[in-house]
Amino acid sequence: MFNKITVLFLVAAFVAVVSALTDREQFEDYKKKFNKQYTAEEEQTRFKNFQDTLKHIEENKAKFARGEVSHTEGINQFADLSADEWSHRNHGLKRP
Question: For the whole model, what pTM was predicted?
Answer without folding.
Answer: 0.72
